[in-house]
């Protein structure tokens, strides 16, 4: 049986190669073995996002953001998943928090502005 660490390493290697669908498999197994490891949950969220499985990605990033409320990347990715699901109202909160935590990140501000425009449009 593979250890959670070995599964995590295999999954992140697949992520690095943009093989998101394949990365879901070892990262899911690693998350089952180590459900409290936010690094595993964040990587699994990235794999889900890359596989266009936004609902599952949002769940993983939400868990990370709840456990690490100052994790700007998890907040940003949660917002991006919600945007991809068409929920711009809900996306605004984590995107605002991410942009506040890292004001130098232009991409964070740009995606926040997209949600603002989408919810303010008539």
UniProtKB/TrEMBL annotation:
- List, alphabetically, the Pfam families matched: TPR_16 (PF13432)
Protein name, UniProt field? Tetratricopeptide repeat protein
Give the highest taxon in the source lineage. Answer: Bacteria
Give the source species: Paraconexibacter sp. AEG42_29
Cited SUPFAM superfamilies: TPR-like (SSF48452)
């Amino acid at each position: 049986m593979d250890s959670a660490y070995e599964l995590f390493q295999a999954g992140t290697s697949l992520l690095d190669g943009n093989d998101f669908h394949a990365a879901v498999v070892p990262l899911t197994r690693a998350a089952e073995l180590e459900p409290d490891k936010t690094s595993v949950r964040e990587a699994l969220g990235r794999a889900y996002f890359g596989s266009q499985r936004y609902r599952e990605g949002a769940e993983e990033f939400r868990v990370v953001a709840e456990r690490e409320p100052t994790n700007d990347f998890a907040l940003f990715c949660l917002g991006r998943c919600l945007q991809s699901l068409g929920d711009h109202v809900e996306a605004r909160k984590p995107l605002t928090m991410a942009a506040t935590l890292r004001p130098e990140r232009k991409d964070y501000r740009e995606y926040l502005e997209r949600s603002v425009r989408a919810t303010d449009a008539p």
